[in-house]
Hints:
The protein has helices at about 15-20, 20-35, 40, 65-70, 75-110, 115-140, 150-160, 165-185, 195-225, 230-250, 265-270, 275-285, 285-295, 300-305. It is mainly α. The protein has a single domain (about 5-305), classed as Orthogonal Bundle (Ribonucleotide Reductase, subunit A), CATH 1.10.620. Helix 5 (about 75-110) runs parallel beside helix 7 and helix 8 packs across helix 12 (about 275-285). The longest helix is centred in the N-terminal third of the chain and has 35 residues, at about 75-110.
Amino acid sequence: MTALQAVPDVEPTEASRVNPREKTARRLLGSSAKNSYSPDLDIDWDAEPVEGMWHMQPERMSLYGTALWESLTQEQRVELSKHEVISVARVGLWFEILLMGMLASHAYNQDPASEHTQYALTEIGDETRHSVMFARWADKYGGVAYKPHPVVHHLGKVFRLVAPTGPSMWAATLVAEELLDRLQREGMADERMQPMSRMVSRIHVIEEARHVRFAREELVREMEKSHRGPVLWFHQVFAAAAAAIIAESIISPKVYESVGLDPKQAHRTARRNPEFQETKRWMGEKIVPFLDEVGMINPVARFIYRRAHLMS
């Protein structure tokens, strides 16, 4: 940690001594002041990739365990790992920008003097740095512009406008953050991985832990409100649909062109791959039970999560 360490400790307000929401925000503000990174300084962007090292855990890649995987040379598998991690970075960047818009809308309707709002704005600062970090990471590894499908991109605009009105904002945010967190938490400890991938993962995991805490507590508070009937049903299904879209968009079909595979055939193979389906369930095994516990999963939402292979 470097430049961002110099932020002074946050002084408690009267509200933070008695209000649980403010109390949580104050703790997170303190953590942000003491445990934040500057990717410009904490990552060696000039370092060249280490030849032969993975950019992503091979067991978590979309084709792992298939006949197509067996047909690839070791060099092609490593190359594909680079392109899959570029896709993850680009989709992560896309969602970070969506999240910043939602957090700004949320903060707009809150008391700007509250520590809750101050933390929401602090998180926007974190996400801004993460977005730049993901963009530089993808550019360092080739800069291929893997993007969500145009329909998904358009739906993202709708989601940004609709989600800040209730619990679906926090639920979808948690799914996006915790799916990536699960992947990166494992990857940052894997010595087979490129040093840059491990450092990016480490920074994101440490800082996202605060964001996850914030979103989990906000979702619980939202669910304690009088959301009932059609309104609750809408948020449950809307969040599940967003989760399914995020899980489907993580790996762009275009990544397979990098190793000479037909993108349509390889994408079909990946979608049907039991190993990749199990990886998705593994990525969702912490957050989906939490959503179920707080009442965010109804029968329709459960069907969507299972169809997306995010739960058994």
